[in-house]
Amino acid sequence: FVDIMEEVSGIDLSQFRLWYSQSGTPQISYSLDYDKENKICRLTLEQKNDKTADQKDKKPLHMPISVGLIGKDGKDIPLKLVGEYDEAETTKVLHLKEEKQVFEFANIAEEVVPSILRGFSAPVRIVTKAPEDELVFRMKYDSDGYNRFEAAQEYMTKALIDMVNDIENGREAKVPEKLQNAIGHILATDAQGKDKAFIADMIKLPSYRIVMQELKIVNPDATIDAINTMKAQILTRHAQDLAGIYKSLSATDDEKYEVSTEQVGRRSLRNLTLSYLMADKAENAVKLAKEQYDNAKNMTERLGALFALTQTDTEETKAALDDFYNRYKNDTNVMDTWLSLQAGMEHGDTLARVKNLMEHEVFDIKTPNKVRALISSFANANPKQFHRIDGEGYKFLADIVIKMNEINPRMGAGLVRPLLEWKLYDNNRKELMLKQLDKIRALPDLNNGIKELVDKSLALRDMDTQENKNMNKHKPGGSDIAA
Question: 289-307 in b/e burial notation, b at 16+ Cβ within 10 A?
């Protein structure tokens, strides 16, 4: 393929071929310097590709980095490199071929905000941490959908990390005013546009998995509480706009169901705004969700309403779950969703619910999809309940893995993975998870696939233990000093 591109374009792509031979994900950092006197904006791009076990000497890659510069009015500025005579473009592809290059843009009349890697023009990772004001500005005005979404996710994640820390330290967790203003701008100026799916993505909060990647030690309770608190505070601030958007997205009586961009986007944004309206679990919101469930004309809207209802412990929730079962009990795939939704409930004793559902007629532990729908959903998509402080979630999963060792070892190897993440959690949860891994490992007939995963994880524990012993040994008062 590269040979054909080279022949057609007449461009030497020999350096580009390194993408096929060098492992790892390259990292990009950037900085911007504005020369007001000469009206020149200098963009410095640097690439780095960390050493890997198979390759220690990494060469610079040829990277097409698509960039834009946004003016104070929120509009893209036409770009021309110094000495370039081509027609100006608002998005410019820069060819980064060295470890570090400086690109100079001419006739830039004011300070600008950079928009780097537009359209994900290269499979790289941006490591430069943009200032909050820059992220907010791009959330509001970046014309590139990919970068605008990335700015929103990055800033929301940062805000959530701060809120997690506040909750852990007994302080009031509050959504930053800048983020509230950015959400308000999106709801007021974008929600009436055609691309409803994109707006849904813009106001959707980062997931637990995204937030936990940025934490040194994961507190699942505080993390979920931070996400729920952010959602509730956004609702409090923007309740009128969210309610108005939700109402405006109702299907007309004569609408024919279509899998079109317009309809898919409308349903996506409607379901998301409903989940926001349910954030404070108010009685009127519960009734609204139940009304959508009862009057839904398609599965997307019915499931959206049912998901919203499962966030509350109400009679409406129970009625909707019972109705859903009676409607679709003969459709095994739809019943998988019914199981998953209940496994994901944050309130009440979800573990007891999951155990009861294992006795339900729709569940069969010998059917992989049923196990994924109920057990895997509980362990992977319900951190607050799976990581309960008494360790019963871990014990339950370990017992299932042991049972699957006989029924379906491959499924057992997939199920054990949440327990392998013990290093991410606090000491209490860590010890409880390791205890269950030791229990699994003690099986005399443990399947090799499960055994390999567990052995690798326990080996990390043993290495940590040895390192701690060595550190203590050399501390003042340690064993060798005392001797």
Answer: bbebbeebeeebbbbbbbb
